Amino acid sequence: MKRNTRAEFKPDSADLLNFILRHFRKFLIAGVVAAVLSAVISLMIKPLYESTVTLYPSSNITEARTLLGESTSRTALFGDDDATEKLIQVINSDQVRDWLRTTYNLASHYNIKPGEKYPNTVISEKMDRFIRCSKTSFGSVEIRVRDRDREIACAMANDIASRADTIFNNLQRSSATQMLDEISRSYGLQDKLVRMYEDTLSTLKGEAALRIWTTLETETDYLGLIRGRYLEALALSQQTLPYTLVVDRAVVAEKKVFPHRSLIVIISTASVLILLALILFVIEGVKLHPADDRQ
After folding, report:
1. Residue 107 scores a pLDDT above 70
2. Cα gap 24→28, rounded to integer Å
3. Which H or E run includes 22?
4. Is 206 left (phi over 0), alpha (psi -120 to 50) or beta?
5. How far is CA 38 from CA 7, 248, 260, in A?
6. Is residue 24 packed enough to be buried (19+ CB in 10 Å), middle (13-18) or exposed (0-12)?
7. Cis ω for the linkage preceding 259 (within 30 of 0)
8. Alpha-carbon torsion 68, 72, 73, 75, what sign?
9. Residue 139 to residue 144: CA distance in whole angstroms
10. What residues contact residue 53 under an 8 Å CB cut-off, 6+ apart?
11. How far apart are CA 38 and CA 32, in angstroms?
12. Residue 30's closest CA among 234, 279, 229?
């Protein structure tokens, strides 16, 4: 005759209070050990500190500039949504990331091994993790930097905001310089044309001289227009305009943002106690007994 076994739960195992009292010592020991171990482990985790910069894009990002940098229209002090998106794009650009990588020697700061196969990829992943830039519900831009060094987190956040302003000015100067070169060539050609008409006019009289004089006036006016554009481009190539308006600069964080040691201890201890309760419940509540044979 073959003997089989089957599992059956005892009715009294549902009494949770009695169950806890019976195994109170086990729960106490397990809870204390779990709390101590999780606290020790949490102390071994290096803390992260966070610094935040809040800034707005200025109207210079979207506003056209005229002679000597004067605006073409009276707009708000802050830029619009389009300016905000442009500011975020610049902050997240490779120009800013490469500058941070060099300035703060991030390969060494993030402990990238010299033999790392893809060091730039690892650095980029860490920057994505520790540096965040986002648009707030108020239309401002928020830069959050986390680092194990609270001083570096603060400095990096402020430097990112400053670097974004520098990049906008560099773009403006580069564009103005290119414009300046084109206008200089146009001005030179137009000046030669005006001088040619002036030389021709000195040799003519009568109706022919009148026609040349009319043409000379038109070309001279156009020469003045080119000169105005030249002065505008020259001013823009030399100006430093504010493209960002910092509302709150980053300060050195006093408290860490990670890890939350109390939360780690509570979750770890609760998990151990729940697991222990399940194990004890199964051991106590299940009994094995012979099952009836059936032919």
Report:
1. yes
2. 6
3. helix 16-22
4. left
5. 36, 37, 12
6. exposed
7. yes
8. negative
9. 16
10. 142, 143, 157, 158, 160, 161, 246, 248, 249, 250
11. 10
12. 279
Residue 48 dihedral angles phi and psi, to the nearest 5°:
-110, 140
Express each pLDDT in 245-272 by its tens digit. 999 999 999 888 877 778 888 898 899 8
In tens, the pLDDT along 166-194 reads: 999 998 888 888 888 888 888 889 889 88
Rounded-to-10 torsion of CA 89, 65, 169, 68: -170
Residue 134 parent element (H or E): strand 131-135
- pLDDT for the residue numbered 83: 87
Residue with tokens 């050609």: 189
pLDDT over 50 (residue 211):
yes
Helix, strand and coil in the chain, % to nearest 5:
65, 15, 20
Could you report the per-residue pLDDT of 266-282, keeping only the tens digit for each?
898 899 888 988 888 78
Joined together, the tokens standing for residue 227 give 């000169």
CA 74 → CA 71, 82, 83, 102, distances in Å?
A: 7, 17, 16, 40
Helix (H, G, I), strand (E, B) or coil at 5: strand
Asked if 187 and 227 touch (Cβ cutoff 8 Å), the reply is yes
Indicate left, alpha or beta for 63 from its phi (over 0: left) and psi (-120 to 50: alpha).
Answer: beta
User: What's the whole-number average pLDDT of the chain?
Assistant: 82
pLDDT tens per residue, range 67-103: 444 444 444 556 678 889 999 999 999 999 999 999 9
CA angle 38, 39, 43 (to 5 degrees): 115
More confident residue, 141 or 26: 141
